[in-house]
Write a structure and sequence with these properties.
Layout (H helix, E strand, L loop, with lengths): L4 E6 L6 H15 L3 E6 L9 E3 L4 H19 L24 H5 L2 E4 L9 H8 L5 E4 L37 H13 L5 E4 L2 H9 L7 E4 L14 H8 L6 E9 L7 H14 L6 E8 L12 E4 L5 H10 E6 L8 H8 L4 E4 L14 E4 L4 H12 L4 H15 L2 H19 L1
Parallel strand pairs: 1-2, 1-4, 2-3, 4-5, 5-6, 6-7, 8-9, 8-11, 9-10, 11-12, 12-13
């Protein structure tokens, strides 16, 4: 096979689920001797094979100004502050086709590029560069009029408009105008889509913007030799927790993100407390960014743990937990679910988005009725009181290994890259 140079492009190097998935893809490809690097807008520290477009303090300020401009424009239209970062205009961004790493690459592989990094104009430049382009979707933004997840709205299958994220939705609203801009760019330009979940792939194929595109479903690579069950006693000791307790883990980069379903989690825990008659053997662990006063919402004792770059600590969190709760209202193929399953920790979630592809109901977790705090509580209770927890835990690990092999993910990525190179030769 011919040699190739692959460039992964992402807003961040390791901040957020999409960036983590992109960085893991780079590391996995490197382990298989692929010449791959990553281009991001900014990063906090030097990272091997990762380059950034921000070399000066002035450029950092320009990045910030671009981000603020996009947010200020959307402020005029947004329905409420709760959805402020769930809609991206891509009206401002930087051009990267002149970047040395872009010029030297044989394959351009886009990932999450919003928040003032790449604009629609930047995307047009990339697609016009003559290089083969792969784009991994980590949400629905590429084929909507601006939202990252459409929830119950199906306007993306038509031409957007009447957007539920906007305070004055109508047929020709902001979402429709952005849709029209995307239509102009995507109509006559080719790129190949990768989606981590079958669900997101089906959404892309049913969209009005990208139904003509080639779509491949390839899960994100996660190293099962890193994410594996640890002894609960040791994990708890490392975290300062009591190994005699049953911990319910809830994690999100920002629990205030409406899509993560935190309000449903709170209601479910309050219901669970009543049904379990205040069982003091149950405690909550919140992992991620949350308000200092959030613990008062829970009747069970609650621990707050900040995000960390330590994989060991993340594995300890999953291993210390009796279950992982993730009531996302819509999600692609969350890294956190795969990580939890690899660590042998059953998952309780809503039957929504790509999550049903990951959880077999009452086999490796529990799929609750969509937006039902009552059923979420029932799922947590079912796991906590199960007489077959060890089997449930073993199923979690086994099913994750069967479905989310790191080697299979890389094999499919490399196969796709070579196919594109042959077509462009």
């Amino acid at each position: 096979m011919p040699e190739m140079k692959v460039l992964l492009i992402s807003k961040h190097a390791k901040t957020g689920g999409a960036a983590i998935a992109t960085h893991r893809l780079m590391e996995a490809l490197q382990d298989h001797s692929v010449d791959v690097s990553m281009l991001v807008q900014e990063m906090d520290a030097n990272m091997e094979s990762t380059y950034h477009t921000t070399g000066t303090v002035l450029k950092k300020w320009i990045n910030l100004v671009r981000f603020i401009i996009e947010r200020l424009v959307f402020l005029l239209y947004e329905k409420s502050s709760t959805i402020r970062f769930l809609f991206s205009l891509a009206n401002t961004g930087e051009g990267i086709t002149g970047n040395r790493h872009f010029r030297e690459a044989d394959i351009i592989h886009l990932h999450w590029i919003n928040a003032g990094f790449l604009s629609l104009r930047s995307l047009k430049g990339i697609l016009d560069s003559g290089k083969p382009v792969v784009w991994t979707f980590h949400d629905m933004w590429a084929f909507t009029g601006g939202c990252h997840y459409a929830l119950d709205c199906e306007e993306y299958t038509r031409n957007c408009g009447n957007c539920p994220y906007l305070k004055k939705p109508h047929p020709g609203d902001l979402s429709h105008r952005i849709w029209k801009r995307k239509e102009k760019i995507f109509q006559k330009r080719k790129f190949v889509i990768v989606t981590p979940s079958n669900w997101l792939g089906q959404c892309a194929q049913s969209s009005s913007l990208l139904k003509h595109c080639e779509v491949h479903t390839i899960h994100n690579p996660i190293d099962h030799s890193v994410f594996k069950p640890a002894e609960k006693e040791i994990a708890c000791e490392n975290l300062g927790l009591d190994p005699g307790k049953n911990y319910i883990l809830f994690g999100a980069a920002n629990v205030g993100n409406m899509l993560k379903g935190f309000d449903y989690f709170v209601k479910a825990i309050q219901r669970l407390y009543k049904e379990m008659e205040g069982d003091d053997g149950i405690e909550i662990v919140l992992f991620g960014k949350s308000r200092d006063d959030v613990t008062h919402l829970f009747p069970f004792k609650t621990h707050r743990i900040s995000f960390t770059g330590s994989l060991r600590k993340i594995v300890d969190l999953y291993s210390a937990a009796h279950l992982f709760a993730i009531p996302s209202l819509q999600d692609n193929l969350p890294n956190t679910i795969i990580e939890s399953l690899f660590c042998g920790t059953p998952v309780v979630a809503f039957n929504s988005g790509g999550i049903p592809e990951m959880i077999d109901h009452k086999v490796n977790g529990y799929l609750g009725e969509y937006r039902s705090g009552k059923d979420l509580a029932e799922g947590m209770k079912w796991v906590l009181t199960s007489d077959h927890y060890e089997e449930l835990s073993a199923n979690a690990r086994r099913i994750a290994e069967e479905r989310y092999s790191r080697e299979k993910s890389i094999e499919l990525h490399v196969e796709l890259y070579h196919k594109l190179l042959e077509q462009h030769s």
